[in-house]
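Question: Hello, beginner here. Any chance you could explain the protein record under this note? Any guidance would be welcome.
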Amino acid sequence: MSTFIYILSVILIFGKIVIPVYLLFRWFFIIKPLLVNLYSDEKFSFYNGINKSRLIILTVILTLSFFISKILSSEVSGTSDIYNSAFNLCIIVFTQCILFFMFELKTPKNIFTLVKHYFQNPKEIFKSKELVFQEDLMVQPIIKNGFNFKDTINLTVGDIVKQVHAREFEVIIGKYRYIFMDNSSIDNLYRLCNGIEIKEKSIVINIDNKKYSKQYVVEIIAALFNIKRNWNSELKDRTNTKIISFLNSYFLINEGVKSLHINDFTRLFEKTD
């Protein structure tokens, strides 16, 4: 019986303390950049990956976790029935695990992704990541040589720029983010795919054709832009060439040694058809 009580005590500590405190620390480090930005710039603005709705959801889940740990744990300590205590403990652990999973799904970068990235590249996980606050990400049409983006590449169906949500953007580049030389390159890609003007050759990429190849770059671009919808194999010299030229003006691959080509996208689209 003493062993059974010991096991129940460990479970109680896990459900009452470990998960709520873990969520509290995760929540704190999510809002810390917001508080630092509020103090330094004297304005409250959300960064890429976190917004008002997501912050409210995370706060509610955190509050529920502490509420459940307090209410149900008092039920456990308030009864001498060992089986009733065991049942309440199961409820605590089950609900806390659900809240833990829901919390992680809504974080800017959940713990599962962090662990995955750690095993892919342990050194990168300790490097500081600059946060981009969304206040400056106001979508404006790209102007190039006096023409807007759509006029520049002269498409008949429409331009290849589309609005990409920050969460979707993170998912798309998630496993490829280490090919980017710095955070500013990632930020500039986010701006470009949302129609915001950036400097030419400001998306710097380094590939080695072994672990990371140019095909990864093509897959990222194809996922972020409406290229396939506007791709026309019969008009390579008109439409497709202008799309490639436009993209090459912003992407710097291996210090300019490599560049994007029409065939890169043609092979990708033929493979996915």
Observations:
- The first strand starts at residue 143 and ends at 144.
- Residues 195 and 204 are 18 Å apart (CA to CA).
- The first helix runs from residue 2 to 41.
